[in-house]
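Entry for zinc ion complex. Fields follow.
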Amino acid sequence: MSRHKTVLAPGRRPWQCWAIMTMLNFYAGSGLDRAAHRRKDQSWLQAALPAARLVPYWRGKHLMAGPPEAATPVWLDPAADWWRQGLALDPIFLGLDGEVPVFAVDLSPLAEDPARHAELAALGSFVDLRGLTPVLPAETAGVFAYTRALMLWHDRHRFCGVCGHATAVIEAGHARRCTNPACGASHFPRTDPAVIMLVHEDDRCLMGRQSRFPPGMYSTLAGFVEAGESLEEAVMRECLEEAGVHVGDVRYHSSQPWPFPASLMLGFHARALSSDIATDLATDLDELEDVRWVTRDFLLSHQPSDSFRLPPRDSISRRLIEAWLHEPAFGR
Ligand SMILES: [Zn+2]
């Protein structure tokens, strides 16, 4: 697809080269070497912790210092010990940033209100990831999304789905195992695939709006992949269900981790094979309150307002729209 020759500069890891970074969406690209071979190496993990960067997490939120418009992420000092009493589970090994080991620590049990906890309050305040988009560097956003995805999975998988017994953390936080000797089932972090697609027809594209969206915001259509369904089938089904529009020529663009709580958004462009929006279908849906065709000229010239605005720049939806508008390789 790309005519750019991929050249890896000395000292750069494969996922840091320009051609790959330009394909990464927000919340991807932590830049970490996950070093999975270390996850079962208890002696290495123990030795790594004192020199590690510790990423604090508290009930879905991340620790930031400074004013909201210029907040910076805060790491915990491994030499301090006050935080060790408040861990929901042992530190999770995320990977290596160069030579620096990076662990995530779940402080959720430490305080009901972190603002009233002396040590935590002195470091900063916990903020929801979605509110950090304007200030987070892309790699930190990737680390936070990675942390959030794992923590939410642990919180929701404390018991075995096979036999109902408690599960225990294994592999430095990347799996759980049932504690029932007669069962012993292993459980791995769950990711739910969802398709998101820009549907185009000549110089216009299909956009929809959910009632929970901010005023005026329209987005590309999206939906979860169902059991026994391919990604292309999911794209075609969702477009038919949500807008009554038949689509084909389904082409993959890129993907985005979406840990709200456990999705992977798989982005596509698709060509409309029919034009009429079936409003009886669209208005019947819980999810969408409006579906419409929007022209390229309108998208290029509009001013964001409460009657129309594009999705935020951290979203893969926006990326699919921008690719269709500006990159001839996609959707023409
Ligand atoms: Zn079990």
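NOTE: DSSP finds eight helices and 15 strands in the chain.
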